[in-house]
Design goal:
- The complex is a heterodimer.
- By secondary structure, chain A is of the alpha/beta class.
- Chain A contains ten helices and 14 strands.
- In chain A, the strands form three sheets. A six-stranded mixed sheet of chain A has the order 6-7-8-3-9-10, with helices on both faces.
- In chain A, a hairpin with a 2-residue loop joins strand 1 and strand 2.
- Chain B is mainly alpha-helical.
- Chain B has two domains: 66 residues, Arc Repressor Mutant, subunit A (Orthogonal Bundle); 48 residues, no CATH class.
- Chain B contains five helices and two strands, in the order H-H-H-E-E-H-H.
- A two-stranded antiparallel sheet of chain B has the order 1-2.
- In chain B, a hairpin with a 3-residue loop joins strand 1 and strand 2.
- In chain B, helix 1 packs across helix 3 and helix 2 packs across helix 3.
- The two termini of chain B are 27 Å apart.
- The chains are: A alpha/beta, B mainly alpha.
- At the A-B interface, helix 6, helix 7 and helix 8 of A face helix 2 and helix 3 of B.
- Chain A: GO terms for molecular function: ATP binding; ATP hydrolysis activity.
- Chain A: Pfam families: ABC_tran (PF00005).
- Chain A: Keywords: ATP-binding, Nucleotide-binding.
């Protein structure tokens, strides 16, 4: 069992700093979510981990072996991304052949099964497929390669609701059959909130959260009630957002509450869901930067 | 089974609660097999580790048991056990809340008892 260590990765493109000292650990056989707003640096990070681009500084290690330019390590990882790496004139079947050649193995029975379920014609040329079907072909590959670390960058891009549903089911089925690490980067947070065990949030090139979903949710609170009572109760706490409707205010708190304070009768406390928490955490930061 | 993903109750607790309710209402009888982690996980897009955590709550409560290589099964006496637990928590879960709400509404104890009697009569007429 190998563990993937991402150590102090920074990346500049010219003057623009895309990633700032990102350190994280990916354990074997876990499903992770990688969340971030547009331009947060998610794709850059995934490209660096899988050695498609070099970082300005930092390294990626699979156990004690440096991943960069190491074919043995790289064959343990697969990145499905928006980039279409396959020649348009190639037939889908031929693309699967090529993947098999570079990874040594390919789960053909599963590929046929998935092609049937998603209604992909293996004899069709890749270039003639729609955006959604480009994603589907790449997803099939991602589930059929023998790699231990599968990175999915926007896996459901262009997929309709039915196909997304099918994909999540097949992902979990493949995971149960052969547990491996999946890292799913997506903007459709609600859809993956219960599917992933642990999330990384990046914002503005920095790691904002690195926690199990359950723990994150447990530390997030929505405190609702008459404005003065809510403000008094949340004073000094880490308030990440606020909403008001008339006299009723909701303050969103991320962190621990003060147990010594008495909760007023007029105030209710609930937990946030992952998507709301993400929105408030990443909104707050941008607003602070602007002021 | 139906999960409320907007609810703030952790998903693993919902998994446990749903299965328990199904056992209690006879959806799964004693010695019946309960759905596997994989089935629940696939159908509701829940991480298998979360589903397993929920199942383990029921194992700890002695309601289901793992039969190696076969899956999870409802234990003998599970239904009685749930009944017993729910009776014990009936007072704190329902009676206390009922009295509190009645007090907020300015209902006297007599009035509340009358209402309870009415509830029973109503129950009789609808059956």
């Amino acid at each position: 069992m190998t563990t993937l260590h991402v150590n102090h990765i920074s990346q500049h493109f010219g003057k623009h700093q895309v990633l700032k000292d990102v350190t994280m650990t990916l354990e074997p056989q876990k499903i992770y979510g990688l969340l971030g707003r547009n331009g947060a640096g998610k794709s850059t990070l995934l490209n660096i981990i899988t050695n498609r681009i070099f970082p300005s500084s930092g390294d990626v290690m699979l156990d004690n072996t440096e991943v960069f330019e190491n074919d043995d390590c790289l064959s343990k990882m697969y990145l499905m991304s928006e980039a279409n790496l396959y020649a348009e004139r190639l037939k889908v079947r031929k693309i699967f052949d090529l993947v098999q050649m570079s990874y040594g193995q390919f789960d053909w029975p599963l590929a046929h099964e998935l092609a049937g379920k998603f209604q992909v014609n293996l004899e069709e040329r890749f270039g003639r497929l729609s955006t959604g079907y480009h994603s589907i072909v790449k997803l099939i590959i991602a589930l059929c390669v023998p790699a231990d670390y599968i990175f999915l960058d926007e896996p459901v891009l262009g997929l309709d609701a039915n196909h997304r549903e099918l994909f999540y089911q097949e992902l979990l089925a493949a995971y149960e059959k052969r547990p491996r690490t999946f890292v799913i980067s997506t903007h459709l947070i609600e859809e993956i909130a219960n599917l992933v065990e642990h999330v990384f949030m990046i914002d503005d090139g920095q790691l904002l959260a690195d926690e199990d979903v359950e723990e994150l949710i447990a530390r997030s609170y929505a405190i609702t009630g008459p404005r003065p009572a809510v403000l008094a109760y949340t004073e000094g706490l880490n308030v990440v957002g606020e909403e008001s409707l008339g006299q009723i205010t909701t303050n969103y708190v991320f962190g621990t509450l003060d147990d010594t304070r008495i909760i007023p009768d007029s105030v209710t406390i609930e937990h946030l869901d992952l998507q709301k928490l993400f929105v408030y955490l990443t909104n707050g930061r941008h607003q602070q930067n602007e002021h | 089974m139906q999960f409320n993903f907007d609810s703030t109750e952790p998903i693993y607790q919902q998994v446990a609660a749903q299965l328990e309710e199904a056992i209690f209402t006879g959806g799964f009888n004693e010695d019946d097999q309960v759905p596997s982690t994989t089935e629940i996980s696939k159908q509701f897009h829940i991480n298998p580790a979360t589903v397993l955590k929920g199942m383990n709550l029921l194992v700890a409560k002695d309601l289901i048991e793992k039969k190696r290589g076969l899956g999870m099964f409802v234990k003998q006496g599970a239904k009685d056990k749930i009944m017993h637990q729910r009776r014990e928590s009936f007072y704190s879960d329902y009676v206390l809340n009922l009295v509190q709400e009645a007090q907020k509404l300015g209902l006297t104890q007599d009035k509340l008892e009358q209402l309870i009697s009415r509830g029973y009569q109503n129950d009789d007429t609808t059956r």
